[in-house]
Input
Amino acid sequence: MQQRNIILLGVAMVIGLFAVFLANSYFSGVEQRQQQTAAQQKQVRIVVAAQDMGFGTPLGVQNLRLANWPADSVPAGAFTALEAIKGPSVALRPIVAGEPVLASRISGADGRATLSANLPMGKLAYAVPINDVSGVGGFVRPGDVVDVILTRAIPGDGSSSTDKMTDVVLQGVPVLGIDQVADEKQTKPSKAKTATLEVDTLGAQKLALSIQLGALSLALRNVADQTATGAGTVIPRHLSVTNYRINERQSAGSAPPPAAPRFQPRLPGNFSAAAMTVPQRPKGPVMTVYHGSVSSEYEVKRGW
Output
């Protein structure tokens, strides 16, 4: 009985080794054929994503693969072998299936998804306080573009605490993160306390000063809209539609609209201005004399 079990175990091991050999031969043949095809078509093999990956996804053989790519259009930072991705690396930005894995989109050997690795050269990340109103109801998410608006008190001795002014501090600013979320695929609205913006050094200085001067709010902008509006300062009198339109025309260099003419009544043809003159009332004491139903007033002169 024991001898029979040993024989069965040996047969199973032989069959398993043969299956592994066939699988290796098959995959090696596929790899060789793909390499030959790439060489014939002047293509190279680069590492691409085998599946969709979000921010912070660890990279490994389970979500990476090699794919043929035109040799004359290989993107900068692409990897030509899976072994070239050293250490525990993670995705710093969302990567879709079939997209080349670039060195600028993954972390280094530390395996940490750091926001600083996403910043272009010369750019800074600066966080500003927001709430459910100033954050556009929670619809501002990582990857959006916003304008930053400052509302503060009007300076001067003659202004009161209710006198406010509003300025556009920055326009077309990319949003890097909301609270501690930097994944661009997280698009569900949420109430946040901070928004991290991508700015230059001057922009960071403006934000730092604006936080001390007043309240900041964000205005969501179309990501394809790169137009600078050149908005000016808005004060309380601009809240009137009429004053706002007059101010717009004056800022554009056009003259203000002419004043409306004063109303002048039209008189019939048989009346004149003299006929419409009201007689002056006597200044001194008067005496009224009635002749039937008709009354007449006579001024009584003093010194009788």
